[in-house]
Design a protein that fits this description.
Elements (H helix, E strand, L loop, with lengths): L11 E4 L3 H12 L4 E5 L2 H7 L5 E4 L5 H6 L7 E4 L12 H17 L1
Parallel strand pairs: 1-2, 1-4, 2-3
């Protein structure tokens, strides 16, 4: 299998620009992958606006906002935002399922 066969095809949605989300987004951009980064904190959006061509300030938990941003067009997504205080985060399988289901829902409109 060649290295090129492991490359992503199509844009990637990165939800959250904390340390992990930023590292993923910047690495993808450096590899020539188109990235849409969504971050709620306007300070982080301003910091990364010059390095990430498509970065928007929005609430990733708002379904209508996600629809307006066209997340249904994405086949790949990285969920990298923190849970609110007191929230018990789901396990990895739940997050993976949430991403697949969410993208499918937004695609079907």
């Amino acid at each position: 299998m060649s290295a090129d066969s492991n490359r992503l095809t199509g844009p990637v949605l990165v939800a959250g620009l904390g340390r992990f989300g930023t590292a993923v987004a910047l690495t993808l951009v450096q590899d020539g992958v188109e990235v849409l980064a969504i971050e709620q904190d306007p300070r982080l959006v301003a910091i990364w606006a010059d390095e990430l061509i498509h970065v928007v300030q929005a609430d990733c938990s708002d379904d209508e906002v996600l629809r307006q941003l066209g997340v249904g067009q994405f086949t790949h997504a990285v969920v990298a935002y923190s849970a609110p205080p007191g929230y018990s985060p789901p396990n990895t399988a739940s997050v993976s399922c949430w991403v697949r289901v969410s993208l499918r829902i937004f695609r079907s409109g």
